[in-house]
Amino acid sequence: MTTNGDPGESKSGIQVLARAAEILRLLHGHPEGLSQTQIGAKVDLARSTVSRLLVALEAEGLVISMGPRGRYRLGPELVRLASSARRNAWLDLHPLLVEFSYEIGETVDLSVLEGDRAVFVDQVVADNRLRAVSAVGDTFPLHASANGKAMLAAMPEPDVRRVLNGKLEEFTKNTLTTPTAVRSELDRIRSADGIAFDREEQSFGVCAVGAVIGTVDHDLLALSVPIPKQRFTGREEEIRAAVLDFVTRCDSWIAARR
Q1: Does 2 have pLDDT greater than 50?
Q2: Which of 51, 83, 101, 146 has an alpha carbon 20 to 30 Å from 39's alpha carbon atom?
Q3: Which domains does the chain have, with CATH numbers?
């Protein structure tokens, strides 16, 4: 006679999964993050139980902590898993990215809005010896990246306010770190057909041009063209016009997805 294991142990395992899922759903609704104490109060679990679950989730990359006593938020592994599940909605766009990259001779990135971050979900790398490349799955702050600022300019005011009320981290001396400065930049982007620039605001030596492509299956998608500063200087208008043209060409693709 065979058995399927201890029923009590199986039930305990299911409870652990259910509690972990409850924490993940809670953090999904709080992109700004929650402390361990706040999580315990909201899911009505003992502090020791919450601590064990968070340690396990963090080890798998499903949550990340902002310092020893900081807030917890959804982790990069969960973002990658979610991106994979939704990737079919973006596959048809890849050939257009390849064509566009070939036309301008630069790397092209596709990103999706995830909470208060821009997440790279596709990329076409140009054949240049000197190039600016980030990995698919990497996340970027909205206030300090071309794709992120383009998204922020297209977001509803309550969402913009939420992002600007958070910490605007400084990455370089060019990073915009005050709500007033960011809002001024968003006004400029909106008056410039949605085209956004990153002039060494995220990384020294790297500039970028970005724009929102549109909303697909409830996901806000943006394009960005990262370029080493040496090739960016003097080509700003050329790249801006090329990105704007590409976004216009994507309109029929967006309409077909609706």
Answers
A1: no
A2: 83
A3: 7-74 (1.10.10.10), 80-257 (3.30.450.40)
